[in-house]
Amino acid sequence: MVALSSTFRRLRRRTAAGAGNPMPEHRAQPAQGDEASPVDIAPNDPLLAYLQSASGAVDVEALELDSPALAELKAAGVKLAVPLVSQGELIGVLNLGPRRSEQEYSSDDRKLLDNLAAQAAPALRVGQLVRQQQAEARTRQRFEQELEVARLIQQNFLPKQLPELSGWQVAACYQPAREVGGDFYDVIALAGGQVGFVIGDVTDKGVPAALVMAATRSVLRASAQRLVDPGEVLERVNEHLCPDMPAKMFVTCLYGVLDPATGHFRFANAGHDLPYVKTALGSVELRARGMPLGLMTGMKYEERETMLAPGDSLLLHSDGIVEAHDPQGQMFGFPRLKEAVARYPGGGELIDLVLADLHVHTGPDAEQEDDITMVVLQREPAHGDSPNGKVIGKLLAEFEVPSVQGNERMALERVAATVAPLGLAPARLRRLETAVAEATMNAMEHGNSYRADRPVTVRVYAEPGRIRVEVADLGGARSAPDQVEVPDLEAKLAGLQRPRGWGLFLIKNMVDEARESGDGERHTVELVMHLEPKLKEGDDDDDT
Amino acid sequence: MTTREALAHVRRRDGVAVIELVGDLNAAAESALDEAWTAATSVRPDAVVLSFENSGYINSTGIALVVGLLASARLHRIPIRAYGLTDHYREIFEITRLADFMAIDTDEDSAVQGAGGDRDG
């Protein structure tokens, strides 16, 4: 009814300047002033209901209703009110003053007006809808422009590149939601080779959040250079932000200082989600108490510290991950993220795997609810037992890949990174990568039916003179790689075979040995690649 | 690891349609490749050249997509060539015998000039 009321406010009465006075014959067009001011009909005025149900033109003078609008119409000299109804909805009223001949409106006049109203109403409705759509388009455009400004601000204040720290892998991910939340992260080079890591989240979205984020980042950077203790840094930032913080806004933020040489990590937390550390014993939360920034002055921030051992991995994250909902409304949750940190490898791979899990959780068509930010610090494992950079006869890596289309690249890259120190020639490494990717694709598709909850397990072994990779799924027995027929390209081109069917063929041709085994539950493909090419009879390896 | 979304741009050069493949060539690339092929052949070209210069990871499904293009090209008697393959993927094109049906060139100039030879021949 609000829309209807506003529509009526725009209606203008076509009445004679003086009710009851004949209009001069020469006035073909209404003179200025003949257009009277709009009639405002309140949503609860009974006249609305009457006009809505009227079968045709309504004699205003004869109508008796307790209606302020009707009284106004009568006072203005309106004789006939013709409802304009489109698709059962009253969208306007055609108000007429007395006839110029001073005669009453005849039944023919009324029929003519009813016909006119029947034809005019749809046209008027179309006009109203066009205006409404134009207004909505302008609103959308303004909204998109504001979002673009917010995106620009956010992106300009994120690190352009991450530091390269000897013995460490640093990876980060920032995925803004469409409405651009207030997530941010930062990496600050400090005195003595130490490095400050920041992750934060401003309440609210769009430009206001982006501006507060920019201010917080600037103050924090300046404070981090002057002060040593993370708690003092957050205290200083809070004091700076409080006076100018807009109402109902605040910033959660975790700030930590890493000594890359020792793995010592000191941190303080202003109400941000707790980070997780993957250790040899599982994943643990790093707890430190403190109020969010910008709420009130005089806050103190508890400072804690931990030691990141070789192989440990630290995940800083924003609430866009744990608060992401599945189609049934269930959140991803802290326990699942903690479990992911314990189960998955660290570095960029942890980010990819968490994002893949999140994608499975929210569903493929879900719009991202909030910004997603992750920063991972992984201390590389010690290689003291690796003479000449080659680890002999041992399991180098074991990891799982969720069975989601495209995830074979995770397996490929993880295996490539694992065997990198072993000195495999680049061309042979590419072949092993392709074989691992194809074996993983087969395992995800044929063994696990692309069910994310049925992961593919990959194990990488260094054995004397060779690398062995196992790719295991939960499917039954399938054809062995060494029994694969050569696909017939000519038959495929002639449409006699489907274009697909290259996977096992590639596996067999890419590695030195390919075998399969099964225990009734698990199906495993073994891929073997010798560190030095073994020439087959009549073969000519191009690595030499 | 970040999967690169597949894109396929079509441009024409000397009567030859060049389909430039950008990103990963996998199952997700199918629609981009189909659209590019339709655009490239909407006006019959003298030949089609596939540029792999800016493509990334290619898996067996990507190989199958190339087989599909090759089948379509042969059906319509449109010569097809390729360039910009890394040594690794060139090897895969050879062992799958794709290279028997599709000339592999080192650069775009050679591919377009070679296509001229296909046309004249």
From TrEMBL, chain A:
This protein's record includes keyword Membrane: no
Keywords: Hydrolase
Region annotated Disordered, chain positions: 13-40
InterPro entries noted in UniProt: Bact_Sigma-Reg (IPR052016), GAF (IPR003018), GAF-like_dom_sf (IPR029016), HATPase_C_sf (IPR036890), HATPase_dom (IPR003594), PPM-type-like_dom_sf (IPR036457), PPM-type_phosphatase-like_dom (IPR001932)
GO molecular function, one term: phosphatase activity
Domain PPM-type phosphatase positions: 165-379
Name of this chain's protein: Serine phosphatase RsbU (Regulator of sigma subunit)
Organism (species): Kribbella caucasensis
From TrEMBL, chain B:
Domain STAS: 6-115
InterPro entries the UniProt entry points to: STAS_dom, STAS_dom_sf
Entry-linked Gene3D superfamilies: STAS domain (3.30.750.24)
Pfam families linked: STAS
Annotated signal peptide: none
A GO molecular function held by the record: anti-sigma factor antagonist activity
Protein name as it appears in the record: Anti-anti-sigma factor
Taxonomic classification: Bacteria, Bacillati, Actinomycetota, Actinomycetes, Propionibacteriales
